[in-house]
Specification:
Strand content: under 5%
Radius of gyration: 34 Å
Number of helices: 7
Number of strands: 2
Strand order of the largest sheet: 1-2
Order of helices and strands: HHEHHHEHH
């Protein structure tokens, strides 16, 4: 980089014919130009890297949304399976019957839920009226699904 363009030849002519201080000018000039070009190349690589990382973040967010949508569809199917009467709510009896079915157990396992005790799971989903509607069911299962968040653990400890 520093010897391209033949600058040493031009600098040598200035030093020999004019004055030796011009050599300092050329050294500083070449150093600044090389530094600037290096910084520009680094900035271009950094820009491309950050763009790729941004695309990865957007892709991960899209995958997370798609996973949530799949979970919601599974929960709606599971709720429809539990709602034997078709009135839009499930009772404890309906829930107990469905939890025993192998198809329902497959759904619960796919959602990473342990349904060992149907009564306790139903009571966690119930808002206190003895029945669980689709909104309570979906929101409750999503909260119960997976690992406990730190805020959930702390709120439980305070209660």
């Amino acid at each position: 980089i520093t010897f391209s363009g033949g600058w040493p030849g031009y600098a040598q002519r200035l030093v020999d014919e004019v004055h030796w201080s011009y050599a300092l000018f050329f050294v500083v000039y070449v150093w600044v130009v090389v530094f600037a070009i290096t910084r520009i190349i680094t900035a271009l690589f950094l820009k491309d890297t950050l763009q790729a990382a941004s695309d990865d973040t957007e892709m991960m967010a899209g995958e997370h949304r798609a996973a949530k949508e799949r979970t919601c569809r599974r929960l709606q199917t599971l709720f429809a399976m539990c709602d034997k009467t078709g009135d839009g709510v499930i009772t404890m009896e309906e829930f107990r019957e469905v939890v025993r079915l192998p198809e329902a157990q497959v759904y619960f396992n796919a959602l990473d839920l342990n349904i060992g005790e149907a009564c306790s799971l139903f009571s966690m989903l119930d808002s206190g009226d003895g029945v669980v509607d689709q909104v309570e069911f979906c929101e409750g299962i999503v909260r119960i699904k997976g690992h406990a968040r730190a805020t959930d653990v702390i709120s439980t400890m305070r209660d």
